[in-house]
Amino acid sequence: KQEVTQIPAALSVPEGENLVLNCSFTDSAIYNLQWFRQDPGKGLTSLLLIQSSQREQTSGRLNASLDKSSGRSTLYIAASQPGDSATYLCAPDSGSARQLTFGSGTQLTVLP
Amino acid sequence: DAMVIQNPRYQVTQFGKPVTLSCSQTLNHNVMYWYQQKSSQAPKLLFHYYDKDFNNEADTPDNFQSRRPNTSFCFLDIRSPGLGDAAMYLCATSRDREVYEQYFGPGTRLTVT
Predict the structure, then answer these.
(1) How far is A11 from chain B (nearest CA, A)?
(2) DSSP states of B23-87 as a string?
(3) Interface check A17 vs B, CB under 8 A
(4) For B88-108, what is each residue's pLDDT tens digit?
(5) What is the SS3 assignment for A28?
(6) Do B101 and A104 lie within an 8 Å CB cutoff?
(7) Strand, helix or coil at B113?
(8) pLDDT number for residue B63
(9) pLDDT > 70 in chain B, percent
(10) Which of A41, A43, A93 faces B105 most closely, judged by CB atoms?
(11) Burial class (CB in 10 A: 0-12, 13-18, 19+), B48
(12) How far from B96 is each of A10, A14, B10, B29, B102, CA to CA, in Å?
């Protein structure tokens, strides 16, 4: 059974800092890994999807890397802004049913 | 804009009173998912439809059922809500099982009194 851990659980940084969010998963036999953003009381917004054959994926100020063999992914956010404040969730896709398993997320606060 | 829509956004029901949550999508995706997310926890998959093929997760309580009358709509029925069923319910879609990226709706916050 896939288990996903995200560290840290919460992070507070001043505006403009670069930061890294970490995700680890126990079953390395994944097809893809998706990073999401969730604002309080809202649904999930897909940020990036990395296929298992890829090492990284970029979108604007976001860069996600994947090391499938070691069961790790990182989300790098450059030049953070207060609008980046949200909970960030990672979810590898694994198993015969192609199920997403979510971590509990990292709650990010970017201070103006 | 193509999107995943959930109604209502907020639902209050009484203990034991059946409730139905609705999800619709304009993406014409084959797969629709229902997740339950309790406060400060990760979303947990309840079940999904691949076209008309229903797939229930092993640990989803029997109290939860789903219907997909057509490609665009999917419903979550909670037959006898308990206090422990209070949560955010998230609907998601993906084009198919191989092209995998999931797109989520805004969620329905269910309160059980």
Answers:
(1) 15
(2) EEESS--SEEEEEEE-TTS--EEEEEEETTEEEE-TT--TTEEEE-SSSSEEEEEESS--GGG-E
(3) no
(4) 999 999 988 766 788 999 999
(5) coil
(6) no
(7) coil
(8) 95
(9) 96
(10) A43
(11) buried
(12) 34, 40, 29, 7, 9
Mean pLDDT for B61-69 is 95
What is the pLDDT, as a whole number, of residue A6? 96
pLDDT tens-digit readout, B11-60: 999 999 999 999 999 999 999 999 999 988 899 999 999 999 998 888 89
d(CA A99, CA A11): 28
A98 at B interface, C-beta within 8 A: yes
**pLDDT lower than 70: segments of chain A:** 96-97
Give chain A's length.
112
Structure letter (DSSP) for residue A83: G
Q: What is the DSSP letter of B99?
A: S
